[in-house]
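Section 4.2 – Deliverable D4.2 (structural model, holo form)

The reporting period included a commitment to supply a predicted holo structure for the target in complex with aspartic acid. Inputs used:
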Amino acid sequence: MHVMKFGGASVKDAPSIRNVAQIIREHLNEPLVVVISAIDKTTNSLETLAHLARDNKGEEAMAQFRKVRRFHIHLIHDLFGSEEVAGVQENVRQFFEEIERIVQGILLLEEFPPRIYDRIVSYGELLATRIVAEYLSVQGVDTQWIDSRQLVKTDANYKSAGVVWSLTQANISREVSPLLQPGRVFLAQGFIGSTTDGHTTTLGREGSDYTGSIFAFCLNASRFSVWKDVPGILNADPRIRENTVKIDFLSYEEAVEMTFYGASVIHPNTIKPIYNKQIPLHVKCFKDTSLPGTIISDRTNPEVITSYIQKKDQAFMVIKPKDFSFMEERLMQEIFDHIYKSGLKVNLVQNSAISLLLCVDDKPVISAFNSLLLDRFTVEVTQGLTLNTVINFTVKDLKEASDAVMVQQNGTKLFMVK
Ligand code: ASP
Ligand code: MG
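Output (structure tokens):
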């Protein structure tokens, strides 16, 4: 079977949805599960709505709610024939009533628990899948809308929930596997799930790729495809570097390094499940389906291509024992214990005789972490840096790193610059 994932840009308006439906129709010879994320920038709009409600800005929140509703209603008018519009509107009405009720509820309350954020933003995916499912049905495709909240079970770490694999596997095996057949499409929301006691959760922004990977894993898919507006995975962000090239084949390892270090083309959590089942991931272009795209599998590109990735908002830390002790394992263990507890996110580590160098995400937790160390260590922090990762580096790339503050090197070279 085949799992396909379409992101917000691929369903951003009526012509785009028609194009996605056409792509789906061309793949009906195999059982299909299609994962879709919120239409265009709907998640951002719902996030704004959640924050306005949290800040008790009642009027602005309701105006924002109406804006989101208007956008979807217009889309329904553009996409469907006049005899279908009323039925489709009726089908999404319940979602808007629920959003409105939640927002009114927050405005009455003093507090804003994080689970409310997840509930509000989850409606982007619920709306998108309802509309696309209706459209496919009208086109005569055997379409089953499924609720990812009932299938993908998570912990209660709202905004970035962790998947409970045993339950998720059992649910998908029970509810989806037996009903798969060529000619039928299961349409599921990306990004969302729920806790064992039924509270809606989200898997982290841009997490729909991960949902696709979860379905592919649980259904033992023979392939997983992610449809983007680019011809495939490029060796650098074209906004940052000239003369980028498209990579035909990437190994799982190269892909996971690229995504972890900031290539935004695929959500970093996506690779592990498909690696564990050796399912190839095909990155395809929805604007031109004849393009070959990029295949992520156990195969590397025949010709070596150097890739350049950047991760912004990084901080560089130099930690030294005040008494000139060696930076030995016992001290490192102590420091890492504090790192773990304070929630600092470390991207690169290097040690010397009496220092530990860290590249970390530049977040407010840095100061809490520092205060835990100040008794025994001096801590120097430089903020506002960018971490550069060069995969398959050449001698020329080494020169570029000569003024970097920290360099680490193996097959992949990482360095930090202002
Ligand atoms: N709609 C969600 C977001 O914008 C998830 C996704 O796009 O993958 O973050
Ligand atoms: Mg998206």
